[in-house]
Amino acid sequence: LLSSLEGAAVIATRIKGASHEFATLPGVVEDVMGIILNLKKIRFKMYNDEVQTLKLSVSKSGPVLASSFEANSNIEIINGEQVIATLESGGSLVMEIDVAKGKGYSPAEKNKKPGQPAGTMLVDAVFTPIKKVYYEVENTRVGQATDYDRLILEVWTDGSINPEDALLFSAKLLSDSVKIFISYDEEEKAASKALAPSIPAESGGISGDILNQSVEIIELSIRAANCLKQAKIKTIGELTQRTKEELLAYKNFGKKSLDEIEMKLKELGVSLKE
């Protein structure tokens, strides 16, 4: 929630009459550093992935608000009431800002983009749309069971995303992150299966893959299953390599169990060794 959700923030600015962040502007109460700090408080919602440039030109005395930037169909200012600067009588403020999408925190030096005009001042950006997260785990009761936990989450956002969506997106990110371990396990199993020796089929053209399957898949009765367990026969392939006489030689392996096994093998298209 706090580090991996995408948001938008100011990454650079150009202010008429200011060549660096320590400059002051005539008729403007705040210095350039103060203006930049206010710009960092503006929150945006972007509708594409390209860096957007917003322009502002104000010459009326009083507070200059974020809503004073020219409208742009690709970006929405969430907190238009945010004060950027305060103009005195006769003062003016002309500036541009570059707004980009990102995740987490990005220092100013990493926000340099190709083709930025001269006089551009880079701004360190906090992209995350999540302002604060609080959680609490408490005991709860479900029916007669008292050993359950209840998770309480409080999520504060900057208004560019609602808390429910933020929670869903972060849960999906977590799910996608742990899928690599699930996929790895499946790949390992597939590799092991590919390397396992196949028992050649002797009847019915049945594939070695099926012969490698456990005898449990043929769903034998408990008595017949116990007989195979006693004989240490684990796969269908091993079973098809035994004759009737060999099976009947095992203790408690009777004709009824033998008939059941032969019937199940016939359904699979294989049979005991002749």
Structure description:
The structure is a single chain. With 274 residues, this protein is of the alpha+beta class. Among the domains are: 6-109 and 119-128, DNA-directed RNA polymerase, insert domain (RNA Polymerase Alpha Subunit, Chain A, domain 2, Beta Complex); 208-268, DNA polymerase, domain 1. It has helices at residues 32-39, 163-195, 208-211, 222-230, 236-240, 244-248, 255-268; strands spanning 6-15, 44-46, 52-58, 62-65, 75-77, 83-87, 93-103, 105-106, 121-122, 125-126, 130-142, 145-157. A 4-stranded antiparallel sheet has the order 3-7-1-9, covered by helices on one side. A two-stranded antiparallel sheet has the order 2-5. It starts with 5 loop residues before the first strand and ends in a 6-residue tail after the last helix.
Unreliable spans are: 195-207
**CATH class category of one domain:** Mainly Beta
Number of strands: 12
Q: Tell me, what's the shape?
A: elongated
Q: What is the makeup of the main sheet?
A: 4 strands, antiparallel
H/E element order: EHEEEEEEEEEEEHHHHHH
**SS element count, helices:** 7
- Percent of residues in beta strands: 25-35%
Mean pLDDT: 87
Q: Which structural class is indicated by helix and strand composition? A: alpha+beta
Estimated helix fraction: 25-40%
Descriptive keywords:
RNA Polymerase Alpha Subunit, Chain A, domain 2; alpha+beta; 7 helices; single chain; elongated; four-stranded antiparallel β-sheet; 27% strand; 274 residues; DNA polymerase, domain 1; 12 strands
